[in-house]
Design brief:
alpha/beta; 18 strands; six-stranded mixed beta sheet; Coagulation Factor XIII, Chain A, domain 1; 9 helices; Rossmann fold; single chain; 2 domains; about 400 residues
C-alpha cells in the first residue's frame, strides 16, 4: 500500500493474513505444565491467507463463500476489531459495521438508551442523535419495546434495532454481515431497500450473505473466498455462478413448502433463468424470463396438473397460469417463457403447485423469490408505460 491514506469510501487489503488459535486455555496442574510438550494441540486456523483486495469509493461488493472461508474475519479486520498478523487493512472515512447481534449493546439499557450509546460511540453529539431518534425507532418497528431493556429482546428484535441504528448513521463505508438472515422476510426486504438508498447516496458496501438474491439486488461485484483466499473477484453473474459450482449447487430448486403427507406429484426442481438459460433471480422490466422446472410422480396418476403463480411481497396474486403436463416415465420437464417481463421494480414470489387432475390441490409445492430492479419514471406493479402527447396538436396534424 502506498503511504497515502485511502480516500473516503475506499477499502484496501494488501497481503492480509490472520490466524486464530483453536487451542483451549483450560486450567492445568503443575504436572501438566511440566510434562506438556510445546506445540501440543491443533494448529492455528488460517482465517485470511495473503488476501489482497481493493474497493473503490461507491462500489458495492458482495462477499460469499463456504462457512469458515474467511468472510466474517475480513469484515472484522476492516472494522478494526481484529488486528492482522501481517499485511495492511484500511478503510477511508467513517466506517459503520453491523457484524454481530447485539454487538455494542448494553444489555441492561433500553433500546432508546442503546441508540444514544451507539450514536455517541460513532461520534455523534446529542443534537445529531436526537435528530435521528424518531426515524430509527420508526424503522425498527419496535413500538413500546424501545423503552424495554434489550436483554428482553429476541434475536429478531436485536436485528431490527441494530440495523435501524446502522442505517441512520453517516457512513462512507458500510460493512454488513449475515445478521439480516435472522429477521423476517418483510424486514429483510425493507433493509435491502435502505441499503440501496445508502448506495445511491454514495456509500461503499461490503455485504456478506448466503442469500444470493440479496447479493444480486444490491451488489455490482462479487468476491468469493475459499480457505481464507480470494477464489474469484468479478461480476455478480459470473461470481455467483462460480460460487454455486464451488458449493456443488449449480441448479436452483426453490424453497420447499410441502405440507406433511403424501403427494402424488412434486416439483423436484425449479429455477428462474434468462433467455440464454443462465440462472437469475434479479431482472429488469422488459427482460425475457424463463421458468424451468421438473415434475415427478411419486405414484401412478391418471393426469397431472401444474399451476404457476406470481405474487407480490404482500402475497397478492398478480398472475396465474395452469397446464396439464405429459409425464414420461413419471417425469415431466417443462419451460415457461415470458418474452417481456411486464413487472415494475419490487420483490416477488414465484409459487408452483403440482397435483393430480380432478383431485383437490394440496397447495403450494415450491416458492422461489426474485426481484425486479426499480427504474425512474414508473411506479406500481405492472409496466403500462406509454407515450404522452399533446392531444390538440395531434388533432391538428390529423
Amino acid at each position: 500500500m502506498s503511504a497515502e491514506a485511502p480516500v473516503p469510501g475506499e477499502i484496501v487489503l494488501e497481503h492480509a493474513s490472520r490466524a486464530f488459535s483453536v487451542r483451549g486455555d483450560q486450567g492445568r496442574t503443575l504436572k501438566d505444565l511440566v510434562l506438556r510438550r510445546e506445540g501440543e494441540g491443533p494448529p492455528p486456523v488460517q482465517a485470511l491467507a495473503d488476501v489482497s483486495l481493493h474497493v473503490a469509493p461507491g462500489e458495492t461488493v458482495g462477499m460469499v463463500g463456504r462457512n469458515g472461508a474467511g468472510k466474517t474475519s475480513t469484515l472484522r479486520v476492516l472494522a478494526g476489531i481484529v488486528p492482522l498478523d501481517s499485511g495492511v487493512a484500511a478503510c477511508g472515512g467513517r466506517v459503520v459495521s453491523l457484524l454481530e447481534l447485539g454487538a455494542g449493546f448494553g444489555r441492561d439499557f433500553t433500546g432508546r438508551e442503546n441508540i444514544e450509546l451507539n450514536g455517541a460511540l460513532y461520534g455523534l453529539d446529542r443534537h445529531e442523535i436526537a435528530e435521528r431518534m424518531d426515524a430509527i425507532i420508526a424503522f425498527s418497528e419496535l413500538g413500546h419495546f424501545i423503552d424495554s431493556p434489550v436483554k428482553t429482546y429476541s434475536s429478531g428484535m436485536m436485528v431490527r434495532l441494530g440495523f435501524a441504528i446502522a442505517a441512520h448513521l453517516p457512513a462512507d463505508v458500510l460493512l454488513i454481515d449475515e445478521v439480516l438472515a435472522v429477521g423476517d422476510v418483510s424486514f429483510q426486504r425493507k433493509c435491502l431497500r435502505r441499503i440501496s438508498e445508502r448506495i445511491a447516496a454514495g456509500a461503499t458496501l461490503i455485504f456478506v450473505s448466503h442469500d444470493t438474491g440479496a447479493i444480486e439486488r444490491v451488489c455490482e461485484r462479487v468476491v468469493v473466498l475459499d480457505g481464507g483466499r480470494v477464489a474469484f473477484d468479478g461480476t455478480v453473474a459470473e461470481g455467483l455462478l462460480f460460487y454455486h459450482r464451488l458449493m456443488g449447487a449449480e441448479q436452483g430448486g426453490g424453497e420447499s413448502v410441502r405440507q406433511p403427507g403424501s403427494r402424488a406429484l412434486v416439483v423436484a426442481d425449479l429455477e428462474l433463468q434468462d433467455a440464454a438459460g443462465r440462472s437469475r433471480v434479479l431482472f429488469r422490466t422488459g427482460d425475457p424470463l424463463r421458468v424451468s422446472l421438473r415434475v415427478e410422480a411419486r405414484r401412478p396418476v391418471a393426469a397431472a396438473r401444474l399451476a404457476l403463480e406470481v405474487r407480490d411481497g404482500a402475497g397478492n396474486s398478480l398472475f396465474r397460469t395452469e397446464v396439464s403436463p405429459e409425464l414420461n416415465d413419471g417425469v415431466a420437464r417443462l419451460r415457461f417463457d415470458v418474452s417481456r417481463l411486464g413487472l415494475l421494480g419490487g420483490d416477488y414470489d414465484l409459487v408452483v403447485e403440482a397435483y393430480e387432475h380432478g383431485q383437490p390441490s394440496p397447495g403450494a409445492d415450491r416458492v422461489l423469490s426474485f426481484s425486479v430492479a426499480a427504474e425512474p419514471g414508473a411506479e406500481g406493479v405492472v409496466d403500462l408505460r406509454g407515450t404522452w402527447s399533446d392531444a390538440e396538436r395531434a388533432e391538428v396534424a390529423r
